[in-house]
Design goal:
Layout lengths: L1 E6 L4 E11 L4 E12 L1 H5 L6 H22 L12 H10 L4 H10 L10 E7 L3 H18 L3 E5 H7 L12 E6 L4 E6 L6 E5 L5 H11 L6 H19 L22 H12 L6 H30 L3 E5 L6 H14 L2 E3 L3 H4 L3 H13 L16
Parallel strand pairs: 1-4, 4-5, 6-9, 9-10
Antiparallel strand pairs: 1-2, 2-3, 6-7, 7-8
Helix pairs in contact: 2-4, 2-5, 3-5, 6-13, 7-8, 7-9, 7-10, 8-10, 10-11
Length: about 375
């Protein structure tokens, strides 16, 4: 089954085309084309993502990415595509929210022959609703033009299943620590496509906390990589100088009776610490970055360990944008080895938002007959 996947949940526009075969437990995926455009450089100057700006960028980039993927897959063919007025009117109605996209749609896509694609899948949530709508409406318009079914995909399910892109197989029950800019969740999957959230953040998600602490320390957006760079420098210097850090931060909810998280207080602790320093130096920043990253990592690992002890999963998955953090990855690897549980760690390319994981999740939902046509963008969609 050839599946076109579309992802526009935040500030990455992504398109992928995969050839999917196999069963739900042992699927196989061949990547026919994959393209992604990140808006990080654009939003960096504002210290965060502006939804309406992100929406405009998606509108601008989504068709060039589609054409690139179709060309790479060798199914981009110019043809005498005759579209009747009734069909064109329906497409215009679908893209009424996206006038700039409609102009490019008519200019570039009406002249293409129908490609050999069996289904279109698109992220319907969670995420920023203005950006989600771009992907959904574009997918629905393509589906209408080419007479191809369109199905919605849960973005977090995509992260959960992202290791499958690389040929890994998930042995159930499976536990996933999903950490990103908008989510921090421990999710148990007793069998394919069935999920139970064991614990989640009560306030800031991990990625959000990294961004806010980076801002407090005067570091650039996105905050995660900036903090990690300083933290790594601090660890190297400590090994060389054999000295102790001068800052100690709390480990919020470390010993709570549940598996929930809270990072807002940790962020505030960093703020109060900085306010007490008359002239903060780069050495101070490095020490605070390391202590903050260590605190976050310790809480994530401890809660994950508790979940493993109680629920006895056969597979542990670390996924989401923050899973690219080297320190968190290293400590989760140690935990998996200690607990003797199979660990699946997507490569960095698959940790961030991408269309390949959406294609994988879409295929499994189609295969299990759970897939449905997206009716609206749902910014708060849950697993």
């Amino acid at each position: 089954m050839k599946i076109l996947a579309i992802e526009t949940s935040c500030d990455e526009t992504a398109i992928a085309l995969i050839d999917a075969t196999g069963t739900i437990l042992k699927p196989k995926f061949k990547i026919l084309g994959d393209a992604l455009h990140s808006q990080v450089a654009l939003h960096e100057q504002y210290g965060g993502v502006f939804p309406m700006m992100a929406k405009r960028e998606h509108q601008k980039n989504i068709i060039p990415l589609l054409l690139h993927v179709l060309k790479k897959a060798k199914i981009l063919t110019k043809g005498k595509y005759i579209i009747n007025k009734s069909l064109l009117a329906k497409i215009k109605k679908i893209l009424a929210r996206e006038p700039e996209l409609l102009v490019e749609f008519e200019k570039h896509l009406l002249a293409l022959a129908k490609p050999n694609i069996d289904a279109i899948v698109v992220t319907e949530g969670p995420g920023l609703e203005p950006t989600l709508w771009v992907g959904i409406n574009f997918a629905l318009a393509l589906g209408k033009l080419w007479d191809i079914p369109v199905y919605g995909v849960n973005h977090m399910e995509g992260h959960f299943l992202s290791p499958l892109v690389e040929g890994s197989h998930i042995t159930y029950p499976a536990l996933s620590l999903l950490i990103s800019g908008g989510h921090t969740e421990l999710v148990l999957s007793p069998k394919p496509l069935v999920y139970k959230i064991l614990g989640k953040t009560r306030d800031d998600a991990v990625g959000e906390a990294f961004d806010k602490v980076a801002r407090i320390l005067g570091l650039p957006y996105p905050g995660g990589p900036a903090i990690s760079r300083l933290a790594d420098q601090a660890r190297k210097e400590l090994r060389i100088k054999n000295q102790e850090l001068s800052f100690t931060l709390p480990r919020p909810m470390l010993h709570s009776k549940d598996l929930d998280f809270s990072f807002s207080g940790l962020k505030t602790a960093v703020l109060y610490t900085v306010q007490k320093i008359e002239n903060i130096t780069n050495e101070n920043k490095k020490s605070l970055a390391k202590e903050f990253e260590d605190a976050v990592t310790e809480v994530l690992v401890y809660k994950t360990a508790k979940a493993i002890e109680v629920h006895k999963p056969k597979t542990l998955i670390l996924a989401g944008g923050v899973s690219a953090n080297k320190n968190i990855r290293k400590e989760i690897q140690k935990l998996a080895k200690k607990q003797k549980v199979k660990l699946l760690l997507p490569k960095q390319k698959l940790s961030t938002d991408n269309a390949l994981m959406i294609g994988v999740a879409g295929y499994l939902n189609i295969k299990s007959k759970k897939a449905k046509t997206p009716k609206k963008a749902n910014g708060n969609l849950s697993l």
